Amino acid sequence: MKNLFILFISMLAFSMSMEAQTFKVNSFYQEYRQYENTFSLTLPGWLMRLGAGIAKKHVAEDDVAREALSLVKNIRRMKLMVVEDANPISNETYLNMIQHLDKHAFERLISVHSDGTHVDILVKEKKEKIRNLIVLVQEDDEFVFLSLKTKLKYEDLNKFIQAVMDSKDIPVKQKNLPRA
Fold first, then answer.
1. pLDDT of residue 81
2. CA pair distance 141, 143, nearest whole angstrom
3. How large is the average pLDDT for residues 12-25?
4. Cα–Cα–Cα angle for 40, 106, 42, rounded to 5 degrees
């Protein structure tokens, strides 16, 4: 009985710590989605899979579209927020969000800063799968936030990248996508 109680408390503490890791991301989304000129959308995975299933029937000839739609089967939830015409997110707030994600086991897959534009793609892995993928794009007057809860494998991303490369006839040596 004592072991069962300890197991229960451990599971509760673990789940609370996992929630705390995404609390700042969720509160960030909730705070800024209320601003004027902001488009925000949350979609459950089942709805995305339904749409992808319908779309696959109409893109039978397009390898890139088929590969992209096959990635959707591994997405559990999507949050998207786009702010246009007046970006309320300061550089300091943006950098604080990146630092928060870095502290909570997110690794930068891509980070580009050029001419006032910041693009960061961060992932959190568990058991060799991407569990969370966050894309942040900040410009002077626009901001994009995309958060995906996923079960993506790097092999699936490699297939998609290869399909894109093949469609563009870009000669590339066969390499696997590096792990973050």
1. 86
2. 7
3. 48
4. 20
Give the residue-averaged pLDDT of 125-143.
88
Q: Between residues 16 and 32, which one has the greater pLDDT?
A: 32
Number of H helices, E strands in the chain: 5, 6
CB 56 within 8 A of CB 124: no
Average pLDDT over residues 63-77: 86
- Exposed (0-12), middle (13-18) or buried (19+): which is 177, by Cβ within 10 Å? middle
pLDDT, averaged across the chain: 77
User: In the β-sheet with 38-44, what is the strand arrangement from edge to edge?
Assistant: 38-44, 75-83, 143-153, 129-138, 117-126, 107-114
H helices within 43-144, ranges in order? 45-56, 63-71, 91-103
pTM > 0.90: yes or no: no
Instruction: Residue 27: name the closest of 86, 87, 93, 124 by CA.
Output: 93
For the chain, the domains span: 21-167
What's the gap between Cα 102 and its chain centre? 14
Q: Using alpha carbons, list the distances in angstroms from residue 87 to 41, 84, 94, 96.
A: 18, 7, 11, 16
Q: Give the chain's length.
A: 180
